[in-house]
Amino acid sequence: MSRKTWLTVRVIAPIMAIAAVVVAIVVTDSVMGGADEPEPENLAPLGPGAAAATPIPPTAAAGMPAPTVAPTQTPTPITGPVAEMRDARRMEDLGLLKAALAEYYEEEDEYPSTGGNIQTVCNYPEIDALCEIEDLIDPIPTDPSGDPGKNGYWYTSDGKTFTLIAGMELEANATPGRCPELAARHTDKDNLYCLRDTD
Question: Within a domain: residue 172?
Answer without folding.
Answer: yes
